Amino acid sequence: MARPLPDILPAPWPADLPAPPARTDEAVTRAAELLASGGLVAIPTETVYGLAADALDADAVDRIFAAKGRPATNPLIVHVADTAMARSLAADWPQAAELITASLWPGPVTVIVPRGPRIPDNVTAGGPTVALRCPEHRLTRRLIATLGRPLAAPSANRSMQLSPTTAGHVLEGLGNRIDLILDGGPCGRGIESTVVDCTTDPPRILRPGPITRAELEAAIGRPVVDVTAADDDAKSAAVRSPGMLPRHYAPKTPLEVSATAAERVEELVQAGKRIAWLTAQIDDPRVRSLAASRDLLVVPMPADPAAFATSLYATLHAIDRRSLDRIIIDAPPDTDAWRAVTDRLSRATKA
Questions:
Q1: What is the H or E stretch that residue 100 is in?
Q2: Exposed/middle/buried for 285, CB within 10 Å: 0-12, 13-18, 19+?
Q3: Which domains can be identified in the chain, with CATH numbers?
Q4: Over the stretch 200-221, which tens digit does the pLDDT of each residue have?
Q5: Most buried one in 72, 248, 347, 350, CB count within 10 A?
Q6: pLDDT (tens digit, 9 = 90+) per residue, 9-24?
Q7: How far from chain centre, in Å, is Cα 296?
Q8: What is the tens place of the pLDDT at every residue in 232-272?
């Protein structure tokens, strides 16, 4: 007999309330009880929804890998309620981690530090380091504090597919593979956290995200290296950090990033293909001309990198429902501010 679909528990927490409404606290308590019994709960964060299990329960963590179809070689991020919990999970706390967390936690940045003995092997893919994050989303921090234990929580989607930014995306992607979805509303950042390896000197960005290199350098007062997929160090970085697989964050519809998007769109439309074109150049006369084609869906996108990141996955989820032939996206500017978006798009385009 098939398992039932998970309940979706609405858990609103208005910004002007210092404590959550009673109904939300009841939802948090139920989620904590499920996690304490080895269950899987999809949780909201400011980046994307995570698929959470008790990070200190190896059997529960195994369920994450099974539900996602995730390779055991791909480590997980451990979410904590505060810095004190993070330090209790580390064998050492490097100065870079101290400076980054003091300045940027709670927030969308993950620090990699030497792994302490409490962390099961499967969380770190057997490696000597652990990735730790204190989320900005206060509902998730309250859940962790209620449970009193850290949560292993990769994105709540099948491996390599689009990350979810709403509870509905989670349900579509994972269905009855999980036990509960805690609905905290749409994710505000919309793209996965920045990951920084604090065990090296200088520290290395292994995955770009909402926190930029400039922000990290301001926090620690010295340079940070940005490891890219083209770097020789990227292969070793993949063992330490999630999100380093060549193909990742991919919609079902084939996706292309083009520096000459208008020409590529025109070529595909003339070939009889049904296309979605994500562009910030909505007032360009050529965009307006091509938009008249009934085989082309023009999707206006923000010109600001943070706003673009927030809307990217939700937009791609919506396009996937249309069963189109191709998605074309204008190539982002080659700047640090767009680094995270460029990284996600480059991984989504790989076969």
A1: helix 95-104
A2: exposed
A3: 7-240 (3.90.870.10), 255-348 (3.40.50.11030)
A4: 999 999 999 999 999 999 999 9
A5: 248
A6: 999 999 999 999 999 9
A7: 29
A8: 555 555 567 776 666 667 899 999 999 999 999 999 999 99
* DSSP class of 331: P
Tokens of 179: 């036990």
DSSP letter string, 114-164? EBPTTS-GGGTTT-SEEEEE--S-HHHHHHHHHHTS-EE--BSSSTTBPPP
For 207-253, the DSSP string reads E--SS-HHHHHHHHTS--EE--TTSTTHHHHHHH-TT-SSS-SB-SS
**Residue from 351, 348, 8 nearest 163 by CA:** 348
User: Which of 293, 6, 350 has its CA nearest to residue 172?
Assistant: 6
- Per-residue DSSP letter, 336: G
What are the two backbone dihedrals, phi and then psi, of residue 298, each rounded to the nearest 5 degrees? -90, 125
DSSP string over 151-213: EE--BSSSTTBPPPSSHHHHHHHHGGGSSEEEE--S-SS-SPPEEEETTSSS-EEEE--SS-H
Tokens 């910030």 identify what position? 280
- Supply the pLDDT for residue 328: 96
Across the chain, mean pLDDT equals 93
pLDDT computed for residue 230 by the predictor: 47
